[in-house]
Specification:
With about 200 residues, this protein is of the alpha+beta class. The protein contains five helices and eleven strands. The strands form three sheets. The protein has a six-stranded mixed beta sheet. A three-stranded antiparallel beta sheet has the order 5-8-7, with no helix packed on it. A two-stranded antiparallel sheet has the order 10-11.
Amino acid sequence: MGVAFAINRDLMDENGLQHEIMIPKRASKLKVKWGDNQELTLINTYAPNNEEDKIGFFKKLTKMTRNNKHKDLCIMGDFNCVESDIDRSPPHRDNERIVASLRKITTKNKLVDIWRMQNPTDKSFSFLQKSSKAMAHIDRIYIHRDLVNYVYDNEVGMGQEISNHDPVLVKIMAKNLPYCGKGLWKLPDEIIMKTKSLERPQKRY
């Protein structure tokens, strides 16, 4: 039981990493440098199953992040709860005290559930309980609202065989990338492929 970070050394300079264990086996923080002197602060969590322990865990995490001033903060992991019944199948609401304690973390740190924000009515699940066939989207990634416009890929439940949880994914581009524009205009392919359209310019000359 616990949390871990896996780093791609081809993309990250391991000398620029700062790791901190926040709550043993439950929460860990990693600061990474990327782009042109940009920092990204990642907090990886594994919330307890017991309801009272879960509330206590979220309260502790709220206190530990209350002085956070990072606008590049992401909190992710297995939260063992959902904020809305749309994230469970069959749908049902979670304990309101648990949801309220989780929302204190996200509200104070200005975090948003980016997948739910971009897919307000969709259903996708990261966990399947085989005995009951119940499913839930309990694995999520919350990002600071200032990062929302830099997200270019976002997936839930991609499938794998080493765990009873499916991975969730968010790709965030660096803020300092050059503006590329809309690109050059070109004639639509469907027009080029039509024989008549190809013949018309020839007849005019």
